[in-house]
Amino acid sequence: MLPGRGPDGRAAVTRLSRLLGTRTAWTAVGDGEFFCPGCGGDRNYRRLTGQRRFALLGVPLLPRGATGPVVECAACRCHFGTDVLDHPTTTRFSAMLRDAVHTVALAVLAAGGTCARGPLETAVTAVRAAGFDDCTQDQLAALVEALAADTGRFTGEPCAAGLAIELHEALDPLAPHLAAAGREAIFLQGARIALADGPYTPAERDTLSTIGAALTICATDVTRLLTAARTPS
């Protein structure tokens, strides 16, 4: 029988592992809150770096080099790579989604050229569903007017550079964390706001194209979604 095979071999390996092995001493270098893949929710974490040492009888002796850094969940104690911190917490994700829908609604209303009742009602419904429970038509209309005054542009014009930057700032960080269906849902909300008072204007199409690009939706799918939004759900 080969060494290490069978009950006697396994017992010998177990005894040896108790005598000789590698131990890691962890040092905390930071902390915060993250979305823990193990727990499936927001948790506190510690960022750790480690020093590996050869151990005899459980006593660390010779250094074996550095390891980590890793992220340790304060709840489940599991270790993860630091790339796990790239995923927003549930709280942060909700805020990003809320801000994205709000920005899209304002951009489409501004492109529409007027704050008519239909687009405003549709926009308010979308913004409230995203988390701004106290949003009103008057608030959105005032924000659109302030946006026009601040940028020095008239509503109904193609998407200006400043507004395009705002859309990308709101949508670019969110898009990687959304499935295709989620990105399309945000786009469709904007399209339905535009359609609430009639067919798309050139300025609305331009703004929606900018929204699609920021959501990493290809031009072909943007065209498909513009058509799909005309069909009552």
TrEMBL record:
InterPro entries xref list: DjlA_N, TerB-like
Domain called Co-chaperone DjlA N-terminal: residue spans: 110-224
One Pfam family recorded for the sequence: TerB
Signal peptide (residue range): none
Origin: domain of life: Bacteria
Protein name: TerB family tellurite resistance protein
Species whose genome carries this gene: Streptomyces hirsutus
